[in-house]
From TrEMBL:
It comes from Phycomyces blakesleeanus. PANTHER family: DISCO-INTERACTING PROTEIN 2, DISCO-INTERACTING PROTEIN 2 DIP2 -RELATED. It comes from the Eukaryota. Residues 436-464 are annotated as: Disordered. The keyword DNA repair does not apply. Keywords: Membrane, Transmembrane, Transmembrane helix. This is Acetyl-CoA synthetase-like protein.
């Protein structure tokens, strides 16, 4: 089946097997046996009928009508009338056959089609006669017709043509011109290898007098394939055989032939034809004649019965006088109609009876000849039947029994329009039922001697005739006798229902179609279903020995009559109050709609239910033009009406404007389409005027903890349950890595132990003394095609650093331990200033300045961050350069600086002085003893910080990470050893990530530590030409590169694939993508696909888990494998348990990628954050890190907070081992991989999986949820929500979703969609949904979500 036309909700597959006898044993002897079909009487006196029964297909019948009956050949067969009742076209039987034979002759002689090949028929409804000619032309030629009426789009038309392997299309000239024009307007080519023929030009063909007559008739088994759209949106083709057609037509002929029914002396029903000749029926129809029941009754059955059929437009019912005129003019005996048209006609006749009386002077309105008013419907409306009979038929001359004339017809529109039931002339049904008979007395006496004997009776099947006549008007939902064998079956278990239970209607008859075209499995499940019956004597379920068609209708057999309540899709289910979860009560949409329309002014409303969290929730959608002030009262009254009349508790009620609900065409009229409305509601694509949701009375069974008294950190219920179910090993291992301790690091060129250095300044001075003229730093001077660069040797860098140090000391008077804010954009001045401050013992604070060009929306936040750092850290001086001064003078930045400064002055804050390092006077001495600028030994003993980096925690609290000289060297050592850095290979660093964390380490310190050149690209150059960054990597053959997601995202958005093709990155062995959160598998796939053109191996793209307190906690560098993918069960994850899922398991889960393994001198433990005990395997906990790469502390922490954060100890473990608490949750997972041709299993180690920050987790019903999972679920659910356009957080106990919607008209509709999505995916209810513009969702300059800021705005009501 084409994925384009998927179903929303299909008939469920059986959920009970034959082995589950205990569930079915209760049905033994209570099941309602299938209704036995009634015999179609054969009247030997009716010569015409005898002849017809010998025909094998309708093509023979058509020839019979002309060749064997000279009286009928000249009689009219089909006539069309226009909207005014005037006859436009009429065709006799002889002319119909002649034109159809001509079509058949052309197909046989001028096409290369073989017997059974498909021919498409594309005709308008007004071209019903041309369509009939083409259809019978296909029959006569032995080809299979494919009428195409359900294709609303060109894609659907192409789908039908391709699936049916059609190579010939029959149409008319008008259709072909219109189709060609439409294709040209859409700039779409015609489907290839398909011929288009215009049948209206073919003419007629008669057998010559010399010939022996008509050509031999050879037909395949298949007659035609009818493609129809089901109510749930599927487009399927139903294969109709010639045998099926003949059976259908015979049943129709017998069922509409007037008979007398009587019971003879033997108790048998005798059916006799009414005495006297029975004239040919005249049928008037405005139903769609090209498909479904309109095709069956108005064309196929008319040919079989010899009826004269008049085709009218559906618009004729808008002028009932014309419809009555046509019925009266042609003395119609049968009319085909539908309820909407008849109700409209009756109401108009009531209001304007004179229009009907005087529509024509020649024709008097008279419906006395009308014996059957056949109404195409599934559900009968008794009140409407009586209204039509008494207010329309009786006043117009049908006075004998007008109610009996009104004849609802149930058909199967999704199964070829097969007739299911109507009030016919075949007599009452034969009923079979179980009856109990006691055992005979002798057996009783013998068995009473057995002590274990219990008196019993036998159950036998008996047959009786149903009461009444088959033409009686029966006051029930559908007063109709079934034509085929009918069984009522439970669609969930496929067991035949008990006598007091409704179920799905299953039928069997010779007229049942063969199945769906090209869908053998689907056909087997629907057209050849076999129910389960439980024998009363054995209590053992068995497969019934008869195959049935599943109709998708819900009904019941009562007294031999079929009672249909609606389609399967029309069921409105809801949870029973006070009952166990899953026990539902069922309502039907038609009954609910009738209640609403009767008691309110609404006439356009639909009901449907949606399935969320394994529960059915009713929804109402209706149209209204009421004012906005009236809508709350209106919607409340409708909700109360549904509750008061039916006990239906609506989950949601939505209001749209007039004509805004989806509709579909049927019989030329637009009908509300419940399934299309359901689809739009679920997709959040309705333009709502008002919304009301009630979750308190409708939603039950949300996920709750098994231990309601304790949270997941204190409760062991979930863990013990996991052990008992085998999810967790009974002998779990503690989640703790080992540590590879490296104490000495040798310089490659000198074999000197770098660990002997105590600070980075001494190491810089040493490098300068060894290789003074070698390049230390390279800077891209401007971004253009030639990539001009400027290099700085070790000597030149040393001189420049000493120059700035001299300026700071002599000119500005700065002293050791004073704090200086480095307000300089990333570049060579930034790096020089850091080293100058370090050489003087000045504590340098790195805080990136605002970027008015790239991030104008963040100016307020960046300036605020700067002033907060000035205030919190008691900054003594601000260092700038020429570029920074230009930023401060920027017309966007300057007013913000003045505004924020005014706020701080109120708190007695004094703005520190500032000075530009660009103005430092020349100083021709080097760092070290020559200038006196170097780190003194006593500076290292007091553990004072060397550098403070301004960063943000996950909950967006500003943190000040303090690094000592020992920490900087330890982090550099880890980089050199883990990444196997070589002095020959340069480091290339971009501005977008060079001012903090691992980026700062690579840009300022790692090159000095390793002895390799460092290549930098400024922020201005990177944003102007991001391709230059990758070209520099290629030029300098960088092996290890540090990037971030924002950097790559910016590059992917700006660099085209054609430009990137020029770059070759095969030298890159380790592209480290840093993240302080959970790795994003989708983003990894995007990056690998994007960079594949550069010949960068996927295994070289490695995630690094970077934390504000340690830039490399874990890394995937040089693991040489793609990320470890783990699909984890959501239901267990929210309980704190890791249960991996196999790809075959169909359940909700989240895909996780690992963050790698620990580097040297680092150890990780997964610890319960409350008990501070090691977590066993398969249990999530807080990530604790023991490493000399951890920062000293966070500035401003008191002793207790510092000890709790940076000197934590594990309960029950060695108290001498101190850990840094990351505040992030995760788990360790043992990973193995296969290597070599022998597929040897190698232990990769314990990989860390990061889940998210504890501060951002959401706790609902004692269960834990991660915002990123909820946000991903919401963002994937609606195309109008941009990527990253959703923030989820918890304000107190309230779960809040703030989402951005692109289209304002869909804003209100997105609210229930978001609630639905979270309920289905995460099994809890959102408390508040806020819809905003996308620019209202705050982000950091690096693209990270600022949920904490959104929370603050929500609490302060500033959203």
């Amino acid at each position: 089946m084409a994925t384009t036309f998927k179903a929303i909700e299909s008939i469920p597959a059986p959920t009970v097997s034959l082995d589950e006898q205990f569930l079915l044993a209760d049905l033994a002897g209570r099941q309602d046996p299938p209704l036995v079909p009634r015999d179609v009487p054969l009247d030997p006196d009716n010569i015409d009928y005898v002849e017809l029964t010998q025909c094998e297909n309708l093509a023979q019948v058509l020839r019979y009508r002309v060749a064997n009956n000279s009286l009928s050949r000249a009689m009219p067969a089909f006539t069309t009338v226009d909207s005014k009742g005037k006859e436009t076209t009429s065709l006799t039987w002889e002319k119909l056959l002649a034109r159809a034979e001509k079509v058949a002759k052309v197909i046989r002689e001028k096409s290369d089609l073989k017997l059974g090949d498909r021919v498409a028929l594309i005709y308008r409804k007004s071209e019903a006669i041309e369509f009939t000619i083409a259809l019978f032309g296909c029959f006569l030629s032995g080809r299979v017709a494919v009428p195409i009426n359900a294709a609303d789009e060109l894609a659907e038309l192409a789908f039908v043509l391709n699936l049916s392997a059609t190579r010939l299309v029959l149409t008319t000239e008008h259709n072909l011109k219109a189709f060609t024009k439409d294709m040209q307007a859409r700039q779409v080519d015609f489907p290839k290898n398909i011929e288009w023929w215009k049948t209206n030009d073919f003419g007629s063909w008669y057998p010559s007098q010399k010939s022996s007559g008509y050509p031999d008739l050879k037909v395949p088994e298949l007659a035609y394939i009818e493609y129809v759209k089901a109510a749930n949106g599927e487009l399927k083709g139903v294969a109709i055989t010639h045998k099926t057609l003949m059976a259908q037509c015979r049943v129709y002929k017998a069922a509409t032939t007037e008979t007398c029914a009587a019971v003879n002396e033997q108790g048998e029903m005798v059916i006799e034809r009414m005495a006297g000749p029975q004239p040919v029926d005249v049928v008037v129809s405005y139903l769609e004649p090209r498909q479904q029941v309109g095709l069956v009754l108005s064309i196929l059955c008319s040919v079989f019965s010899g009826n004269h059929t008049i085709f009218a437009s559906a618009s004729i019912m808008e002028t009932p006088a014309i419809w009555v005129y046509v019925l009266s003019k042609y003395s119609a005996t049968i009319a085909l109609a539908d309820y909407p048209g008849l109700k409209l006609a009756t109401k108009l006749y009531q209001a304007h009876p004179k229009e009907v009386q005087f529509v024509s002077k020649k024709v008097v309105p008279n419906l006395s000849e009308l014996r059957l008013l056949m109404i195409d419907t599934i559900i009968v409306q008794p009140e409407v039947n009586e209204f039509i009979a008494e207010e329309l038929l009786r006043p117009l001359g049908n006075t004998e029994d007008p109610l009996e004339v009104v004849c609802p017809v149930a058909s199967l529109p999704e199964h070829g329009g097969m007739l299911l039931s109507f009030r016919d002339y075949l007599g009452p049904a034969v009923l079979e039922e179980w009856s109990e008979e006691p055992l005979d007395s002798e057996n009783n006496q013998d068995q009473e001697q057995d002590q274990d004997y219990q008196p019993s009776s036998t159950r036998k099947m008996t047959s009786t005739l149903a009461s009444g006549h088959s033409r009686d008007v029966w006051e029930c939902v559908l007063d109709a006798d079934a034509l085929p064998t009918v069984a009522i079956v439970d669609p969930e278990t496929t067991a035949i229902c008990a006598a007091d239970t409704i179920g799905e209607v299953w039928i069997d008859a010779p007229s049942v179609p063969g199945g769906f075209w090209g869908l053998p499995k689907h056909s087997s499940a629907i057209f050849h279903a076999r129910p389960i019956i439980v024998q009363p004597d054995t209590l053992h379920p068995e497969i019934y020995d008869q195959e049935f068609l599943r109709t998708g209708l819900v009904g019941k057999l009562i007294g031999g009559r079929l009672v249909v309540f609606g389609t399967y899709e029309e069921r409105i289910r809801q949870q029973r109050l006070g009952e166990g979860l899953g026990l539902t009560e069922v309502h039907f949409a038609s009954s609910l709609v009738e209640t609403i329309t009767k008691n309110t002014r609404l006439d356009s409303c639909v009901f449907f239910d949606i399935t969320l969290n394994s529960q059915n929730l009713p929804v109402l959608a209706f149209e209204s033009a009421a004012t906005r002030e009236e809508l709350p009262g209106l919607i409340n009254s409708v909700v109360d009406l549904a509750l008061g009349y039916h006990g239906l508790r609506l989950y949601a009620a939505v209001v749209v404007g007039p004509n805004n609900l989806p509709r579909s065409m049927k019989n030329g009229r637009r009908y509300l389409h419940a399934m299309m409305t359901k689809r739009a509601f679920l997709a959040g694509q309705m333009n709502l005027r008002y919304l009301k949701m009630d979750v308190d009375r409708t939603v039950f069974g949300v996920a709750t903890s098994d231990d309601p008294n304790l949270d997941i950190w204190r409760s062991y219920v979930a863990y013990e349950k996991g052990v008992s179910m085998g999810i967790i090993s009974a002998r779990p291992q503690p989640q703790h890595t080992g540590m590879e301790i490296i104490r000495s690091v040798l310089d490659e060129r000198t074999d000197f132990d770098l660990s002997k250095f105590t600070n980075i300044i001494d190491l810089f001075i040493w490098r300068t003394s060894l290789h003074p003229e070698e390049t230390a730093f390279t800077v891209l001077t401007q971004s253009n095609g030639s990539l001009p660069t400027k290099s700085y040797t070790w000597r030149k860098m040393s001189t420049k650093i000493a120059t700035v140090a001299n300026f700071l000391q002599k000119k500005l008077g700065l002293k050791r331990n004073q704090k200086v804010l480095l307000f300089i954009p990333f570049g060579i001045d930034f790096i020089i200033s850091i080293y100058a401050c370090l050489s003087l013992g000045i504590i340098v604070v790195t805080c990136p300045p605002p970027d008015p060009d790239q991030h104008p929306q963040r100016i307020q936040d960046d300036v605020g961050s700067m002033f907060a750092a000035l205030h919190d850290l008691s900054i003594s001086y601000i260092l700038t350069n020429t570029r920074a001064e230009d930023i401060l003078k920027n017309k966007q930045v300057s007013p913000v600086v003045k505004q924020v400064l005014a706020q701080y002055r109120k708190a007695n804050f004094k703005m520190p002085e500032q000075s530009s390092v660009s103005k430092a006077p020349k100083f021709n001495k080097l760092l070290g003893k020559e200038s006196g600028f170097m780190v003194q030994p006593e500076w290292l003993s007091d553990k004072s910080p060397a550098l403070i980096s301004v960063q943000y925690s996950a909950d967006m609290r500003r943190v000040y990470a303090t690094l000592g000289h020992d920490t900087i060297l330890a982090q550099c050592r880890t980089q050199k050893m883990t990444c196997q850095m070589k002095f020959q290979r340069s480091l290339v660093v971009a501005s977008i990530y060079g001012t903090f964390g691992l980026g700062l380490l690579h840009s300022a310190f790692c090159g000095v530590y390793v002895g390799c050149p460092t290549v930098t690209i400024s922020d201005e150059d990177f944003y102007t030409n991001p391709l230059a960054y990758f070209e520099l990597i290629q030029r300098y053959k960088a092996k290890d590169v540090c990037v971030s997601h924002p950097l790559l995202q910016y590059a992917m958005n700006r660099i085209s694939q054609s430009d990137l093709r020029r770059v070759v990155l095969h030298n890159v062995q380790n592209m480290m993508v840093t993240t302080d959160d959970r790795p994003k598998p989708v983003l990894y796939q995007h990056i690998t696909r994007y960079l594949a053109i550069t010949r960068l191996e996927k295994e070289a793209i490695n995630t690094v888990y970077s934390h504000a307190s340690n830039p490399m906690v874990t890394t995937r560098s040089y693991m040489l494998v793609e990320p470890i993918s783990l699909f984890v069960d959501f239901a267990w994850l929210r309980q704190g348990i890791v249960r991996p899922l196999s790809p075959e398991e169909d359940t909700s889960g989240v895909l996780l990628h690992d963050s790698g393994i620990v580097p040297s001198n680092t150890m990780i433990a997964i610890v319960n954050p409350e008990t501070q005990m090691l977590c066993p395997s398969n249990v999530i906990g807080e990530i604790w890190v023991a490493s000399d790469c951890n920062i000293q502390t966070l500035y401003g922490l008191n002793e207790a907070s510092h000890a709790a954060r940076f000197e934590a100890t594990i309960s029950g473990a060695d108290p001498r081992v101190k850990y840094m608490r990351t505040g992030d949750l995760g788990f360790l997972w043992n990973v193995q991989r296969q290597t070599g041709t022998q597929q040897t299993v190698v232990e990769e180690g314990q990989c860390l999986f990061v889940l998210g920050a504890i501060s951002e987790t959401i706790e609902v019903n004692r269960l834990l949820h991660f915002p990123i999972d909820i946000e991903n679920t919401i963002e994937r659910s609606h195309p109008g929500i941009p990527v990253g356009g959703c923030h989820v957080f918890q304000a107190g106990s309230e779960v809040v979703v703030v989402a951005a919607i692109k289209a304002k008209e869909q804003a209100l509709a997105a609210i229930p969609m978001i609630v639905n999505t979270v309920l289905e995916g995460h099994s809890f209810l959102v408390d508040t949904v806020v819809i905003v513009n996308s620019n209202q969702l705050p982000r950091s300059r690096y693209g990270d979500k600022l949920r904490g800021k959104t929370l603050a705005s929500f609490v302060e009501k500033k959203l």
